[in-house]
């Protein structure tokens, strides 16, 4: 690692094979915590290259516990996080809307690192019991149309890295990798990224796959559609900038999207929106993101009609029913103690 760090400190970059090998060694505990922290810090101070990102991704996928649910044709809705915007759990809410609309979802998620409440924190609060058992996850898909893949259970080799990430408490290149390493290898994916630069890297890498995908980035820095302004969407057929009005939606202030200061606060916002008691801003933001996922999955021919389908799914209570089915199907006894 000393030689690698010296190269990086001289502003050199890594090729794909070296990047993959380093991450394999990181995961297997071959470096001490100081060396790992120094390595992570490099990528907080300079941009990652496409070769480095591809190598890191390939290592993560090689080390993961794969889940074969191809028959369900599921989509993943996942953001990189790391945008520093402290919004409520938009992609998680959107996932239940998408599943409620009839499109199976394999949601890849984790505890918050650079945010208060990640998708895993949220579901654990409500009593969801994480599992990597295929039969249990298939049962979730059969009963609720959605399964939740808690990243640490599918990427056990990352246990050596997790404490360092937690201690650093800021975004690292693992934020960039999260959406790329869903262990079910979904053929459909909606991805939110925190920068235009990363959107272009993702676009390049995803163009090399057979995925149906949309990569989203709000031009004012959100890793999802925020409706605080225009956003960029990149897909297999190219890229475009879209205004909220083109989806029949309003433009909102950043304050309207605020998440809670605690996991409990975040959970209350989440539940309120699912119950149809969210503000207009909250409802429009989640249906915008869910709509784009439904459009990506081919559930509607146009973006605005996909958003309309998402609105109907939220308003009708189908998204709430989906959430209840998932939670009740995998309830643990610890959750109510968290409330």
Give structural notes.
The strands form 2 sheets. The chain has a 5-stranded mixed sheet with strand order 1-4-5-6-7, sandwiched between helices. Helix 5 crosses helix 13 (280-296) and helix 7 (134-144) runs antiparallel to helix 15 (318-329). It starts with a helix and ends in a 10-residue tail after the last helix. With 339 residues, it is α/β, with parallel strands linked by helices. The chain has 15 helices and 7 strands. The radius of gyration is 19 Å and the shape is globular. 47% of the residues lie in helices and 11% in strands.
Record the SSE blueprint.
Layout: H1 2-9, H2 16-27, H3 33-45, H4 50-63, E1 75-79, H5 90-100, E2 105-109, H6 119-125, H7 134-144, E3 146-150, H8 151-154, H9 162-168, H10 173-177, E4 188-192, H11 196-207, E5 212-218, E6 231-235, E7 238-242, H12 263-274, H13 280-296, H14 303-316, H15 318-329
Parallel strand pairs: 1-4, 2-3, 4-5
Antiparallel strand pairs: 5-6, 6-7
Helix pairs in contact: 1-3, 2-4, 5-13, 5-15, 7-15, 13-14
